[in-house]
């Protein structure tokens, strides 16, 4: 039975013809916490409104090393006042070799951010608590679904751009 599990686990790597993935380093690139209306905001008796923004950057460092930076910004408003703004840029250096372009894109767009997110989540939680606000835990995120949605949007945009090209069937003269 253990052979079946080992063989099943090895199949995806074989599909990528010896692809390798490693986490070289995880680190906090930048962190910021602001509470511009403290201490008055602590006396506000309104329901806080939270909004979160995610972004990501990828930089190729050499043939097989990539830096991925996951940015998380959490904004809390109490009425028309900002209670706090917490920002974390969690980064990692990842070794990726032997992937086809689509596989590399998926690793950098979904798997690497998924590895970084728990670190960013913890940092945001600590910032909020240390800022004097009730503990807040960011919910888990399905980075595979976010990546798939990003692919769908890119394909849609590419389709629209192709449709506007002169000589294409939909943009041709009737």
UniProtKB/TrEMBL annotation:
Gene3D superfamilies: SecB-like
Keywords recorded for this protein, A-Z: Chaperone, Cytoplasm, Protein transport, Translocation, Transport
Domain of life: Bacteria
GO MF term set: unfolded protein binding
A GO BP annotation: protein tetramerization
Listed GO CC annotations: cytoplasm
NCBIfam families assigned to the protein according to its UniProt record, in alphabetical order: PRK05751.1-2, PRK05751.1-4, secB
Family the entry assigns: Belongs to the SecB family.
PANTHER family: PROTEIN-EXPORT PROTEIN SECB (PTHR36918:SF1), PTHR36918
Protein name according to UniProt: Protein-export protein SecB
Organism whose genome encodes this protein: Solilutibacter tolerans
Phylogenetic placement of the source organism: Bacteria, Pseudomonadati, Pseudomonadota, Gammaproteobacteria, Lysobacterales
């Amino acid at each position: 039975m253990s052979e079946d599990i080992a063989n099943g686990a090895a199949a995806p790597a074989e599909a990528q013809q010896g692809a390798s993935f490693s986490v070289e380093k995880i680190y906090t690139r930048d962190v910021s916490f602001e509470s511009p209306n403290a201490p008055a905001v602590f006396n506000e008796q309104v329901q806080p409104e939270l909004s979160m923004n995610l972004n990501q950057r990828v930089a190729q460092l050499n043939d097989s090393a990539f830096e991925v930076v996951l940015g998380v910004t959490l904004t809390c408003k109490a009425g028309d006042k900002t209670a706090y703004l917490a920002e974390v840029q969690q980064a990692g250096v990842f070794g990726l070799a032997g992937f086809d372009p689509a596989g590399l894109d998926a690793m950098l767009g979904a798997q690497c951010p998924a590895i970084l997110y728990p670190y960013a989540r913890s940092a945001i939680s600590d910032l909020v608590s240390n800022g004097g606000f009730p503990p807040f835990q960011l919910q888990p995120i399905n980075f595979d679904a976010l990546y798939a949605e990003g692919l769908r949007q890119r394909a849609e945009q590419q389709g629209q751009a192709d449709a506007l090209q002169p000589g294409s069937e939909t943009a041709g003269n009737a």
